[in-house]
Amino acid sequence: MKFIIPQNYDFSSKLFGIIDYSTAIFDIVWCLIIFCIVNCFSFTLIFKIFVVIILSFPVLLFSFIGFNHENILYVLFYIFKFYNSPKIYLYK
After folding, report:
1. pLDDT tens string for the chain (92 positions)?
2. What's the pTM value of the predicted model, to 2 decimals?
3. Residue 58, CA distances (Å) to 39, 72, 76 in order
4. Which H/E stretch holds residue 15?
């Protein structure tokens, strides 16, 4: 059986059909960095869990929702590029 797929269809593999693999890897690395930093201090376990959740939840939320359905890594790259060259202006 043959299926006709349009040539402009984007085959992007996603983890569980929701999030790109590169974004998932970025989220895991971000959470691990926060976890390692929090473990350097001697707080209670509950406080450590709360701090990790509070610092990683916004990044995870923007990863799932995105900025206008754009990958979070591309958005961070655009922001970095814009701050490095402030003479570039955005026009609508």
Report:
1. 676 777 776 666 777 767 778 788 888 999 999 999 999 988 888 998 899 899 999 888 888 777 777 777 778 888 888 888 766 666 65
2. 0.66
3. 20, 12, 14
4. strand 14-15
